[in-house]
Amino acid sequence: MTTSTQWQLANEAAERYQNILTPAILGPFAKALVDFAALQPAESVIDVGCGTGAAARYAAGAVGAAGRVMGIDINAAMLEVARSLPAVYGAPIAWREANITHLPFDDNSIDVVLCAQTLQFLPEKITGLAEMRRVVKPSGRVAVSLWCPLEQSPYFYTLVETIARHIGPETAIGLKSAFNLSNGDEIYALIEAAGFEQIEMTVRQLDLPLPHLTEFIPRHISATPMAAGFNQAAPVVQQKIVWEVTEQLREYQINGRTEIPFKSHVIMCKS
Ligand SMILES: C[S@@+](CC[C@H](N)C(=O)[O-])C[C@H]1O[C@@H](n2cnc3c(N)ncnc32)[C@H](O)[C@@H]1O
Fold first, then answer.
1. 144 lines ligand 1 (CB under 6 A)
2. Cα(73) to centroid of ligand 1, in Å?
3. Helices 125-135, 184-193: crossing angle, 10 deg rounding
């Protein structure tokens, strides 16, 4: 697997992830996962594959000042952005560089593990899930989000399909890889294989208001692993992609507003 399919963004791309993707798409889904986890005051929470820390920051508010939150990511650039953001009300958040497959925590020591849109990028998914299970208390829970199949989120589907057609599948894979683990039965089987006995899966659809698509699409691409392939394409090809995606999503544009449905699995795992 190449680094681009594991969503490894460097420096300015991590900033763009925070400034473009988090407010528009990933942030609302991080909040949906935190709400689903039903965090209680004073709980200890780790956000694994925290990226720039959207779920960790919502969790800090939910557990309050008596709680503990730690964001874990393998990517130093994402953590640097997370550290640079203003503090939020609630629990203090610590940020730490580590691999999900080797979490720096004792057995049975954490109340809740959050894993937002990250499990799909792990080459060793069962090992990662088993590691999350190892660190949660026997009464604890692991809450995971994973996109539903690509065609169920029309914005992502249209963008991937159009980039694959005009530039090539090797560029589109930078976004398509986020849907590598989206089949509900496959997800359930992996979680079961990692040793969890109680698994509750549901789907969250969020209808997200996106900024004007002709401006948002190139900005969004710049914050993903597709950026290099898109930048190398001729300007006329870039413009064609933006125009075609905008046209194909016209049914979601009403009175100058664009509101598009996105679908994600949210899964609660307990031992
Ligand atoms: C699509 S981003 C999601 C970030 C964040 N959870 C969110 O919802 O915005 C995936 C993140 O997983 C991280 N990641 C990928 N593999 C990892 C691993 N083995 N251990 C820790 N983090 C990992 C990447 O560095 C990236 O920050």
1. no
2. 6
3. 60
- Nearest residue (by CA) to ligand 1, atom 10, is 118
Of 121, 122, 127, 144, the one to substitute when testing ligand 1's pocket (max ligand atoms within 8 A of C-beta) is 121
Q: 65, exposed or middle or buried, with CB in 10 Å at 0-12, 13-18, 19+? A: exposed
Between the CA of 167 and the centroid of ligand 1 the distance, in Å, is: 26
Structure tokens at 232: 């190398």
- Alpha carbon dihedral 211, 217, 221, 227, in 10-degree steps, equals -140
Among candidate residues 55, 98, 20, the one with its CA nearest the CA of residue 266: 55
Q: Which pLDDT band, with edges at 50, 70 and 90, does 133 fall under? A: very high
With contact defined as beta carbons under 8 Å apart, do 183 and 121 qualify?
no
Tokens of 10: 């460097």
Q: Cα 168 from chain centroid?
A: 24
pTM across the whole model: 0.95
User: Which of 7, 36, 80 best tests ligand 1's pocket when mutated (most atoms within 8 Å of CB)?
Assistant: 7
Domains of the chain: 3-151+179-210+259-270 (3.40.50.150)
pLDDT band at 256 (very low <50, low <70, confident <90, very high): confident
How many alpha carbons fall within 13 Å on the CB side of residue 230? Answer: 24
The mean pLDDT of the chain is 95
Q: From ligand 1's centre to the CA of 199, what distance in Å?
A: 22
Q: How far is CA 134 from CA 26, 34, 168, 267, in A?
A: 27, 21, 41, 17
**Pairing between strand 93-97 and 110-116?**
unpaired
Beta-carbon neighbour count of residue 188 at 10 Å? 15
What is the C-alpha separation between 173 and 181, in angstroms, rounded? 14
Pairing relation of β-strands 257-270 and 136-147? antiparallel
